[in-house]
Specification:
Largest sheet: 6 strands, mixed
CATH topology: D-tyrosyl-trna(Tyr) Deacylase, Chain: A
Number of strands: 8
Helix content: 10-25%
CATH architecture: 3-Layer(bba) Sandwich
Oligomer: single chain
Strand content: 25-35%
Number of helices: 3
CATH class: Alpha Beta
Length: 145
């Protein structure tokens, strides 16, 4: 998840999503992920206090500041590069499962925060963003880090 000044997603030379200030959430779905993981992540995305208050302290959520949210599917986040020179994607969820959980995450975040911009599942996307801060945080529903 990155705090961004602006971001957009382009597919086939067409901008399919865009926003000004907000959060860009790159989502990888693992083969052990399920509905509980979606709920955990939706709550974190909407409630995490990573925007600065009047004193410059990270104390406000995306909802508090009225910022946008863009959720982009990115299965390559599950690329395991520990062995060899080519990433292994064995731990990523099958596409049908991943798409279902991704769509559920988008819907859950919409219910909690309103409008959500999205990338396109199984599409080649060009993601452009300006990282604000920079602030980049890793969220893991399994709490491995």
């Amino acid at each position: 998840m990155q705090r961004a000044s602006r971001a957009s997603v382009t597919v086939d030379d067409e901008v399919v999503a865009g926003m000004d200030r907000g959060l860009v959430v790159l989502v990888g779905v693992g083969d052990e992920d399920g509905p509980d993981d979606v709920d955990y992540l939706a709550r974190k995305i909407v409630g995490l206090r990573i925007f600065e208050d009047d004193q410059g302290k990270m104390n406000l959520s995306v909802r508090d500041v009225g910022a946008g949210i863009m959720i982009v599917p990115q299965f390559t986040l599950y690329g395991d590069c520990r062995r060899g020179r080519r990433p292994s994607f064995d731990a990523s969820a099958p596409p049908e499962t991943a798409e279902q959980l991704y769509e559920q995450l988008v819907e859950d975040v919409r219910e909690r925060a309103g409008e959500v911009q999205t990338g396109e599942f199984k599409s080649y996307m060009e993601l452009e963003l300006v990282n604000d801060g920079p602030v980049t945080l890793l969220l893991d529903s399994k709490k491995n880090f």
